[in-house]
Amino acid sequence: xxxxxxxxxxxxxxxxxxxxxxxxxxxxxxxxxxxxxxxxxxxxxxxxxxxxxxxxxxxxxxxxxxxxxxxxxxxxxxxxxxxxxxxxxxxxxxxxxxxxxxxxxxxxxxxxxxxxxxxxxxxxxxxxxxxxxxxxxxxxxxxxxxxxxxxxxxxxxxxxxxxxxxxxxxxxxxxxxxxxxxxxxxxxxxxxxxxxxxxxxxxxxxxxxxxxxxxxxxxxxxxxxxxxxxxxxxxxxxxxxxxxxxxxxxxxxxxxxxxxxxxxxxxxxxxxxxxxxxxxxxxxxxxxxxxxxxxxxxxxxxxxxxxxxxxxxxxxxxxxxxxxxxxxxxxxxxxxxxxxxxxxxxxxxxxxxxxxxxxxxxxxxxxxxxxxxx
Length: 374
Description:
GlcNAc_6-P_deAcase, alpha/beta, EC 3.5.1.25
């Protein structure tokens, strides 16, 4: 298979073609052009498939439903250009988390037709601070290494969100890291010093930076201050509701490996209405997803819209926007054959028009059905 257009690579944009054999990119060739010229004259724009490390749901289904919900979620996000993601749990009784992970285990091993690749699990809770639940249900508990490893046996936990200031949690970060689990600081009431201590202990990044954590104050820098001063990696939700564009710009300047996530709920890719988020019912309205009291509860964001927000509102060029929606997350997860359009990588490709609307999507060389607006 041969795909032609303006190809976004980490080194810049080239106008040319790539070939695909046996689900992987066999070759990429072309002539360098300015990023701003990508898509001129009706040429397609080819980007690496988006990678999302924080997906609670989509297409009307929620990860915590277990059963076949993940297949619907994986199909819906693939239609918006997400070719790989982490299925993300909610804070819940441990038995419910076990049921969700048992359903996710087989899907992590085998990708279904028409679906994005489920790379593993992001366990967002229950090991968080009960004073910083955000939209998480009130089932926070202390973590133990034995329990996390037991859950990991059901489905591979690639990322775990933890509040490091809770008793015993700081000492767990190193052993979790050694077990191959990336610890992220989040849903935390911890101080700047707590954040620095967690990073020094081996924490890898921050969960949805700025949200559900103490903000920056010049005399009390808080967890955000720790991230901006010392963080190498962090998630950020660029739906323009969770974080002001000015704060996004600050994070982009400070955190080399900042990457975008959706924190998407069942409402992603769906019309306004009521949807499930763990044990809660949330409402999608005016582009956001909220609890009845108005608290933001995840998002309705998809990664193609995240890219458009970065380019059209934040002013990033395509190469930088692609890095923040794909390449940086792949690097964070240690994936050397995803997140870039290069020979040998999986053929995870999003084809967009000059307005950055999705036209075609390929997951590991398989073309996915997408709905293209007329």
